[in-house]
Amino acid sequence: MGALSATGAGLTWTVVPFVPEVTLLTADQPWELWDASGQDAPPFWAFPWAGGQALARYVLDNPGVVRGRRVLDVASGSGLVAIAAAHAGAASVTASDIDPNAVAVIGENAAANAATVRSASLDMSSASAGEADVVLAADVFYQRELAAVALAFLRRAAATGAEVLCADPGRAFVPRDCLEMAASYEVPVLAAIEDAAVKTVTVYRLAPVADR
């Protein structure tokens, strides 16, 4: 299901609560959309998740992090963080995800927000960060196996010289021992996908290899 057919399957254009500069295709009934998709995994691309909202806010409020630099946003979902990076002046932005539906919707969301973002398929278990100067990752530590894959990918990116920023609302598998806090936000979220109306989200930098 691509972005255009998704628009007719319960998605509406909605202002992101913590990042009102951005409007995204968002599911009205998230679990009904999941059932209709027939897929094993939820449609992660159909919501502004807490970590993505915080990381997008951080990038917009601290544009020097990405300005003039090549940015890779991994597990991008809706493309929210990538759109923020483009608006903050990144030289180039690639938003990547393993889900082809996400890759399609990212293009739709980027166009709607007048953001120059390239969308691409990427599997963190086997891919590299290429020539990215900055790697952004939000909401990737919610499941043990994914957290391990994501951390390995981010460490490979850092080893090539990329600056790595990630954000998480206190999920169980955050590797705090190798992360440095950059900021903390109280982020409003959709009650349908979280256990609280507001989540405390931390934005982290991956510590340099020499510091670990």
Describe the structure.
By secondary structure, the protein is an alpha/beta fold. The protein has one domain: Rossmann fold, CATH 3.40.50.150. It is 29% helix and 28% strand. The chain contains six helices and nine strands. A seven-stranded mixed beta sheet has the order 5-4-3-6-7-9-8, with helices on both faces. It has a two-stranded antiparallel sheet with strand order 1-2. Strand 4 (92-97), helix 5 and strand 5 (118-121) form a beta-alpha-beta unit. Helix 3 packs parallel to helix 4. It is globular. It starts with a helix and ends in a 6-residue tail after the last strand. The model is unreliable at 1-8 (pLDDT under 50).
Structural class: alpha/beta
The rough form would be described as: globular
Q: Helical stretch count?
A: 6
CATH superfamily: Vaccinia Virus protein VP39
**H and E string:** HEEHHEHEHEEHEEE
Give the fraction of residues assigned to helices. Answer: 25-40%
Major beta sheet summary: 7 strands, mixed
CATH architecture heading: 3-Layer(aba) Sandwich
Give the C-alpha Rg: 16 Å
Mean pLDDT: 90
Strand content: 25-35%
State the domain count: 1
Given as residue ranges, the uncertain stretches (5+ residues, pLDDT < 50) are 1-8
Strand order of the largest sheet: 5-4-3-6-7-9-8
Question: What distance separates the N and C termini?
Answer: 43 Å
Assign the CATH topology. Answer: Rossmann fold
